[in-house]
Design a protein that fits this description.
Helix 5 packs antiparallel against helix 8, helix 6 crosses helix 8 and helix 8 packs parallel to helix 9. The chain is 42% helix and 19% strand. The strands form 3 sheets. The chain has a 5-stranded mixed sheet, with helices on both faces. It has 11 helices and 12 strands. The two termini are 31 Å apart. The protein is α/β, with parallel strands linked by helices. The chain has 2 domains: 174 residues, Nucleotidyltransferase, domain 5 (2-Layer Sandwich); 178 residues, ATPase, nucleotide binding domain (Nucleotidyltransferase, domain 5), CATH 3.30.420.40. Bound molecules: 5'-O-[(R)-(carboxyoxy)(hydroxy)phosphoryl]adenosine (KG4) and zinc ion. The site of zinc ion has 4 residues, from helix 4.
Length: 364
Amino acid sequence: MSATLTFLGIESSCDDTAAAIVRHTPGQPAEILAEAVLGQAALHAGFGGVVPEIAARAHAERLDLCAEDVLGRAGLGLGDLDGVAVTAGPGLIGGVLAGVMFAKGLAATAGLPLVGVNHLAGHALTPRLTDGVNFPYLVLIASGGHCQFVLVEGAERFHRLGGTIDDAPGEAFDKVARHLGLGAGGGPAVEAAARTGDPARFDLPRPLLDRPGCDLSFSGLKTAVLRATETMGGPGAIGPQARADLCAAFQAAVADVLGAKARAALAAAGETAGGVGVFAAAGGVAANGAVRATLGAAAAASGVRFVVPPARLCTDNGAMIAWAGIERFRAGARDGMDLAARPRWPLDDRQAGMLGSGRKGPKA
Ligand code: KG4
Ligand code: ZN
């Protein structure tokens, strides 16, 4: 195994242009030398969602600034790097393409190895970057575009145990926030409103809990919130307390479903891999306090350690891509100038894709 590796990671698969530099010496904790995220929320605010064309253009315009920024703050030049890692999918293809073309140019100019990374692998491997977790472990990736339970057996060995059959939970949080007039604040706005709400006032469904396995569904739950609002005269007619109660009920339902399915996934992981010592969560929804609580309780009930990376490393970032690049590189992976940008790229390609498509396309 080669000694210390320093990688630049590039991420541009959705609405965050991100770069980071990660250094790792075998046997020691990984170090994030510098990280930068240029969000695009303001650019998409008026459109009720991410506009792929606007996202792609903004990535193309700012990737170089982002990379320059992290190199400058780490006090490094291109010659100090051992490789460039880039998200090569899945995601909005214009943005992924902008990142891949930028990384190719950089790698070719500086004579550096290039490693294409699956965005979901970046999320799934983050617990190793932050907490040095050993294989195998179970991870829940729950964000605006993804929701799946993955058994991580190696840097390139992922076994999907289950996932959403329709919407991702973050997508449901975002839609509920917009519907209730909380604007583009998404999950954090719903969580804030829920603090003063009574989760018991509205009886919302817990989809798929009557089914064995760890597949999930959030579309019906989102619709139930919209229906409850309509029966009270629509979003414009309800007061702040009813809004808070709805947010609390919705959040409690999402947390209950994720917690219950986490128990099922932990049981399945026990059968598949002879048990795991760690259950980790990643993705923006893992930043939610109620969700963390039910996931933590599921881990405790199974006697495994619960690991959640800090919020900035749960949401999309460059460090997870640099780290996954280092892991792939150590496993012998090298990509050439023919590296393709892929809108769809299942993490576990031994299984058929799942139903459902969110703002990042099918939930791989
Ligand atoms: O991982 P991420 O940054 O990007 C995607 O890959 O989608 O996750 C963003 C998603 C959004 O849907 C956002 O509303 C949700 O994560 N999110 C939250 C919270 N913070 C972010 N959902 C619930 N509670 C939160 N505190
Ligand atoms: Zn993501």
